[in-house]
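Handout, section B. The chain below has 138 residues.
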Amino acid sequence: MATPSAPAAASATAISAEPERSKPERSVTQRWLFAAVLLAGAAQLITISALLSADPLAASWSALLLAIAPALLAAGAAFAPSAAARTAIIAAIVAMIVGLIGSLASWQSWTSHPGVLFIPALLALLVGGLRLWRADVR
């Protein structure tokens, strides 16, 4: 079925006449904190899966801490205003370090050690937190 070419040309000019809407740029700090949210969420889902698997981890306090807290605290750090984000960053870093130390204390093998999965999220949160503090000082 043939269609006339005039309406296509008219609609192309109408589309190009609209102003382009660009997404607001995220700062580098926000990118690091968002990366921390994604990494902590992925590690948290793996930890929850390990706790609920056919051959589950022992439900120790450190495994439960790592299964509950890090992604929520990292999300608070990434999406909260600057003053609240600083508190959430500190809480998330403390929760990840305490969970990591607790899981190292009950070391059995690499398969029963969920704390290692949180190291990339911890590093991203540290970099994002340091950049946030440096931006507030300037």
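Note. Residues 28-52 form the longest helix (25 residues). Compare this with the example in section A.
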